[in-house]
Amino acid sequence: MIKMKEITKTYQMGDTEVKALNKVTFNMDKGEFVSIVGPSGSGKSTLMNILGCLDVPDDGDYFLDGIDINNSNDLELAHIRNKKIGFVFQNFNLLSKLNAVENVEVPLMYRGLSAKQSKEIAYNYLDKVGLKGREKHTPKELSGGQQQRVAIARALACEPQIILADEPTGALDQKTGLEIMGILNELNGRGQTIVLITHDPKIAKQVKRSVSIVDGQLIDETR
């Protein structure tokens, strides 16, 4: 599913060259749930951006489901993100003026589905994440945990091959964070491939396989 070999990414910050990723090699099979854990500035966000086809490496090889990401143009990368990847972010990234159903519908409409199809799918996935009866609530009428459930439903609605969850519990209290982790583990139990980015070792330990990143290098891997 994911094959990365000696991925390098360097940024120029003023007169200083910063190597965010230094020859990172990372492989992941379909149906796995992997956490990537590291402190702020370790390179985990850069790695997630490359995994999610939001950025490309300066050097190294990245194949996603057999596709050579390095040699894909911007339009092809956008198509890959739309078809293969679902994103879940720390701050939910919901549209404040839309209710839960409408937030889930947005990416479906972009994919060309009819309004009727999009609404049916949105209701179905909101039900799956435990939000039946909350479909018409706007983000400000939902708790943080409920907003993250909407974000997960939105990611799932397009039936992505991979979910990339970037600090999905970071803005939540401990109890609610555990509930969100429970949902992600349940999804993985049904065969969903998930990459979880976190700075919290306690969260990382709730995942079967954990990879640590420090100073742009993977230094430890457990199964």
UniProtKB/TrEMBL annotation:
Q: What is this protein identified as? A: ABC-type antimicrobial peptide transport system, ATPase component
Q: Could you tell me the superkingdom of the organism this chain comes from?
A: Bacteria
Similarity-based family: Belongs to the ABC transporter superfamily.
Show the Gene3D superfamilies listed in the entry: P-loop containing nucleotide triphosphate hydrolases (3.40.50.300)
Under the heading PANTHER family, the entry gives:
CELL DIVISION ATP-BINDING PROTEIN FTSE, LIPOPROTEIN-RELEASING SYSTEM ATP-BINDING PROTEIN LOLD
Family annotation (SUPFAM superfamilies): P-loop containing nucleoside triphosphate hydrolases
InterPro entries in the cross-refs: AAA+_ATPase (IPR003593), ABC_transporter-like_ATP-bd (IPR003439), ABC_transporter-like_CS (IPR017871), MacB-like_ATP-bd (IPR017911), P-loop_NTPase (IPR027417)
Presence of keyword Nucleotide-binding: yes
Q: Which SMART domains match?
A: AAA
Taxonomic source organism: Ruminiclostridium cellobioparum subsp. termitidis CT1112
Per the UniProt record, one Pfam family is: ABC_tran
- Cite the entry's keywords alphabetically: ATP-binding, Nucleotide-binding, Transport
